[in-house]
Specification:
Structural class: alpha/beta
Shape: globular
Number of helices: 15
Strand order of the largest sheet: 3-4-2-5-6-1-7
Helix content: 40-55%
Radius of gyration: 22 Å
Length: about 400
C-alpha cells in the first residue's frame, strides 16, 4: 500500500480491529500495525499496557533490523535522555510507551515538538470499563490526541472485545466514523472442556496425563493456589515452574525464560503471566480456578494452539471459585461491573449446550448448531450413540 495515496490515507486514518484470525498470535496481530507504521515517513507511537509486552514486540522488531524502542520506568535518566534524543533525530520508527507516559508534562511537550504520524492503541479493550483489563489511564489517550498540533492516523487493536466493549473503544478513544474490522473469534483447533470436580488436584493430574510430554500453562486465581499446584506437580515428577507477583522479579524472569526456552514444560501461574508471551507450541491451558470474566478466560485459553495444531483448554470451576470471584469483584472500583463480568463466566460454567457456540455468541458471533469439538458436544454424541444401541438404531 502506498501511504501517500489519498484513498489509503483515508482508509488508515482511523480504524479499530476487534478479533483475530483463528491462527493468530501476538506477533501476527502486531504486524497489522507494524507494517503501516513502516510505510510512514515519520514516527509511530504504540501505546501498550505492559512493559513485558512492549519489550517482547520491540525485541522481535530489532531482530528484523527495524528501528524500534520501548520507553519505560525502568530506564536510567541517562538512558532515557539518550533515547529521547535519538527519537528526536529520527533514529527510531516505532516508539512503544505506556498510557501513563502520555500524562507526563515533559513527554507531552516533547510530543508537541515531535508529533507522531501514526498512533496505535494496542490491547484496546483496556479503555473500556466493560473490558476485563480496564486501565483508567487509557481514558487519557483521547485527551493526548486532541492536544497534538495535527491529528495523526489512529488505530486500535484487541483480540477480545464484545460488541459493548467495541462501542466503548470507539467512543472513549474518539475514533470518528472508524472502519471496524472484525475477524472470527472461532479457534477450531481448540478443544474446550469444563469440569466441576470434587477433587481438583486429582482432576489436574488426570488432565495432565492426557497431554503428557506437552507444553502448557496451569492458571490459578491466587498465589497460594499457584504454590499448591507447583508442589503437587513437582511431587509427581513433572517439569514445572511457577509465576506470580509474590515472587521476586528475578525469580519470575528465570521461570519465564525457562518456559519459553522449553527447558520447563509446564508453568503454574496467575493471570499476571501470559500477555505478550509468544510460544506457539502450547498444547494445553488448564484453569485450576474460574477466571473473573469470559473475556479473561478466552484470552488465556487462546494462548494454546497458536501453531494451528490441536490443543486442549480445560476449565475447573466450583462454588468456592464463585465466592472468591465475588469477593475480588467487591474490591474493584466499580463492583457492579466486575460482578456482571463474573456472572458471564459463571453462566458459561453452567451452560448445557455447545461451549464454543456459547463463547462465540458472547462475542457477538453466530456459531453452528454444535461444534463437535468440546466436552458438551462430545458428551451429547456419546449419549446419542449409547441410546441408539438400545433402540437398535444405526449410529
Amino acid at each position: 500500500m502506498n501511504s501517500s495515496d489519498p484513498d489509503n490515507v483515508k482508509w488508515w486514518t482511523q480504524f479499530s480491529v476487534a478479533g483475530t484470525a483463528s491462527r493468530c498470535c501476538q506477533q501476527v496481530q502486531s504486524i497489522c500495525f507494524q507494517v503501516p507504521a513502516l510505510m510512514q515517513t515519520g514516527l509511530t507511537y504504540v501505546i501498550s499496557p505492559l512493559i513485558s509486552l512492549m519489550e517482547d514486540q520491540v525485541a522481535h522488531l530489532q531482530q528484523a533490523n527495524i528501528p524500534a524502542v520501548c520507553i519505560n520506568s525502568g530506564m536510567s535518566k541517562h538512558t532515557y535522555n539518550e533515547v529521547m534524543y535519538d527519537i528526536h533525530t529520527g533514529v527510531y520508527k516505532l516508539v512503544y510507551l505506556s498510557p501513563e507516559r502520555l500524562l507526563n508534562e515533559w513527554f507531552l511537550r516533547f510530543a508537541l515538538k515531535n508529533p507522531p504520524d501514526f498512533v496505535v492503541v494496542d490491547e484496546a479493550h483496556c479503555v473500556s470499563q466493560w473490558g476485563h483489563d480496564f486501565r483508567p489511564s487509557y481514558l487519557k489517550i483521547r485527551e493526548f490526541m486532541e492536544k497534538l498540533p495535527k491529528r495523526p492516523m489512529y488505530a486500535a487493536f484487541t483480540a477480545t472485545a464484545t460488541p459493548r466493549v467495541r462501542q466503548d473503544i470507539v467512543g472513549s478513544l474518539g475514533l470518528a466514523d472508524p472502519a471496524v474490522i472484525i475477524r472470527s473469534f472461532d479457534r477450531p483447533n481448540l478443544f474446550f472442556a469444563k469440569k466441576s470436580p470434587a477433587d481438583k488436584d486429582r482432576a489436574l493430574l488426570d488432565e495432565l496425563e492426557k497431554v503428557k510430554g506437552k507444553s502448557g500453562i496451569v492458571y490459578c486465581s491466587t498465589h497460594q493456589n499457584v504454590e499448591r499446584c507447583f508442589r503437587l506437580l513437582r511431587q509427581h515428577g513433572y517439569n514445572v515452574a511457577r509465576y506470580h507477583a509474590g515472587l521476586s522479579v528475578g525469580e519470575r524472569t528465570v521461570a519465564q525464560s525457562a518456559f519459553l526456552s522449553g527447558s520447563v514444560q509446564i508453568i503454574a501461574a496467575t493471570s499476571a503471566f501470559g500477555m505478550g508471551i509468544d510460544k506457539s507450541d502450547l498444547t494445553f491451558i488448564i484453569h485450576y480456578n474460574m477466571p473473573q470474566s469470559l473475556e479473561e478466560y478466552y484470552q488465556e485459553a487462546g494462548r494454546a494452539g497458536r501453531n494451528g495444531e490441536n490443543a486442549r483448554c480445560t476449565l475447573f470451576y466450583s462454588q468456592e471459585d464463585l465466592r472468591v470471584g465475588e469477593s475480588l469483584a467487591q474490591q474493584q472500583e466499580k463492583p457492579e461491573r466486575a460482578l456482571q463480568l463474573l456472572a458471564s463466566m459463571w453462566e458459561y460454567c453452567n451452560c448445557d449446550g455447545c461451549l464454543r457456540n456459547h463463547i462465540l455468541r458472547y462475542f457477538g458471533e453466530t456459531g453452528s448448531q454444535g461444534c463437535g469439538n468440546c466436552s458438551s458436544c462430545c458428551a451429547s454424541a456419546w449419549w446419542q450413540q449409547f441410546t441408539n444401541i438400545f433402540r437398535n438404531e444405526p449410529n
